[in-house]
Amino acid sequence: MRILVLFDVHRPIGPEETFSVQSLRGEEEKPTEADVLACLRKLGHEVETLAVYDAVKAVLDKIEAFKPDVVFNLCETFFSDRANEPNIPALLELMKVPYTGAGPDALMLCKDKALAKKLLSFHRIRVARFVVSARERPLRRLGRFAYPAFVKPIGEEASDGIARASLAKNEEEALDRARFLHERFESDALIEEYVDGRELYLGVLGNKRLTVFPPRELFFEHEGGAEDAPRFATAKAKWDDSYRKKWKIRNGPAGPLPQGLERRLAELARRVYRILNIRGLGRIDVRISTGGEVVVIEANPNPSLAKDDDFAQAAAQVGIGYEALIQKVLENAQRWSTPATG
What we know:
Blueprint: E1 2-8, H1 21-25, H2 31-42, E2 46-52, H3 56-66, E3 70-73, H4 87-94, H5 104-111, H6 113-122, E4 130-133, E5 149-153, E6 167-168, H7 171-185, E7 189-193, E8 197-206, E9 211-212, E10 216-220, H8 235-239, H9 241-246, E11 249-253, H10 261-275, E12 280-289, E13 294-301, H11 310-317, H12 322-337
Parallel strand pairs: 1-2, 1-3
Antiparallel strand pairs: 4-7, 5-6, 5-7, 8-9, 8-10, 8-12, 10-11, 12-13
């Protein structure tokens, strides 16, 4: 197939600027894009790339000139703004070009974490209880709220805006953190119930017929019970290798689960995926409380497809290697764009 790999950068791009697997893996610090590009070429597809920052016409011109069978959409921002992420697949739909991953509706729903929670609650799915502090009208009191509370930006991803200070022991700390997020991220803040327990990630692949991969778990294995030891997925806990090594944080196949729970988790992941109109691929994040209750934290359309990240590693656990996974993502894009096949 003719595949256009579309991704974003945080600077203007020259008309002749190109990107290789090596440059993406190196100076651009884009391991997902590098892994996907290398894999597509290894699969024998005819592949070209387009990096976008602020030029809509560049996307139009490239698609018109290259005429891809599928756009492999890895864009998360436009003008370096994550709020513009849904506009990329919307543009591709207007051009009637098949693309990988979620559509604009799912991206808009999931990027507003409060709206997604309200929708899931309507369908009687247990989510972390929450209130919203709006940037334009910050909350001054929380009233009757259980502590500790967890405070995060309402529309960020990849744990941006999540740090140790996100865990608030009382009302004052929660409101202080919300005000910080209003200023730092120019964003509304979600103040939610903190669910103490295990954190699991459920990868889902497909459009109508869904495959749920075995759960992955974020492990905090630091010994000694230090008071300042990490307890949740901050940005540093996810992405800072030296920090992860210091605190013995790792991702891996989930530890032993109570009998029947993995099947229940798979059913829950399918429900959340369908309610939020996710297609192609997604990841559902849950916590299992110390009392055994399953709580949905959030849903992530278009999770990272880097070879070493949880989604690809979960697929590998059921015998789907990286090349086969990328090919399935492409095929899901084609099936969605062809009504006869669903």
